[in-house]
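Format notes (please read before filing issues)

Several people have asked whether sequences and structure tokens are stored in separate files. They are not. Every record keeps both together, in the order shown below: the sequence lines, then the token lines. Line labels are part of the format and must not be stripped during preprocessing.
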Amino acid sequence: MAPGTDMLSMPPQALVAFTRPARRRWRDKADLRFYTTTDAVRDLETVRKALGLERINLLGISYGTRVALQYARQYPQQTRALILDSPCPTGIIWASWMRASTRCAEAPAGTLHGRRGLPQGAG
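Then the structure lines:
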């Protein structure tokens, strides 16, 4: 994929094809169910505590904006400031979008019309 490619504008089949090799590479090494925003936020809080910091500044870029926002919501007293660059759309539920993308990619040609099956805001 070329740098700067907007993955949300990719056809679902292309997105699934792009991610499939990575999922295969990692499935025997890591449980990908635990690579979630919630887990990232919990890990970030663990790091803050380990460093002994009372409050932190967060810089979020693209998907990182979702992590920063969720951290600030979950730990407002530990958040001093947020810088959000190129925010990721919050209306898209990624797991749902990926499942729908996989269904579209694996469906026989001509059985899905347009972007039916994708969550609202994903197409």
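For reference, the curators noted about this record: The first strand starts at residue 56 and ends at 61. The chain has four helices and two strands.
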